[in-house]
Amino acid sequence: MIETINKNVEKKIKNKIRIELKKMEFKNSYSGTNYLIETIYILYSFKMYYNFNLEKDIYPIIVKKYGTSSNNIKNNIENSIEKMFYDCDEKILEDYIDDYDFSKPKPKMIIRAVLKRIKNL
């Protein structure tokens, strides 16, 4: 019973993350978007989510879950951000990301923006 409740909570949080990423034109069909969702979900449970190292703290957790490499996760996330950057209107990114400077956002910028929004829901 507890596992079901936890799975339902996980599903609800990941759905909120998907909704936020969709606002920036991320495509759910990309592996990188799914890795990004997983990354944000993991960080969601951390109290100090502003102080994290993706490659040392988060990617190893995802590596174990998906049986892939940290480099694969990093590259897929970067590719998803690249595609989003060309699909998304700059005004949306400017409104969504705090320190947006009209260049392709870094993964941490996207992650922090989504965490900020879902933590306030």
- The overall pLDDT average reads 90
Fold-level CATH name: Arc Repressor Mutant, subunit A
Strand content: under 5%
What is the CA–CA distance across the termini?
26 Å
CATH class: Mainly Alpha
* Sheet of most strands: none
Instruction: Give me the strand/helix succession.
Output: HHHHHH
CATH homologous superfamily, by name?
Winged helix-like DNA-binding domain superfamily/Winged helix DNA-binding domain
Instruction: Estimate the helix proportion, in percent.
Output: over 70%
Query: Please, how many helices?
Result: 6
As for the number of domains, it is: 1
The CATH architecture classification is Orthogonal Bundle
Which structural class do you get from the secondary structure elements? mainly alpha
* DSSP strand tally: 0
Low-confidence stretches: none
Assign an overall shape: globular
CA gyration radius, whole angstroms: 14 Å
Using brief descriptors, characterize the structure shown.
121 residues, globular
Topology:
Blueprint: H1 2-23, H2 31-44, H3 54-66, H4 70-87, H5 90-96, H6 107-119
Give a summary of the structure in a few sentences:
The protein is an all-alpha fold and 121 residues long.
Please give a structural write-up.
- The mean pLDDT is 90.
- The chain contains six helices and no strands.
- The longest helix is centred in the N-terminal third of the chain and has 22 residues, at 2-23.
- It has one domain (2-119): Winged helix-like DNA-binding domain superfamily/Winged helix DNA-binding domain (Arc Repressor Mutant, subunit A).
- The protein is mainly α and 121 residues long.
- It has helices at residues 2-23, 31-44, 54-66, 70-87, 90-96, 107-119.
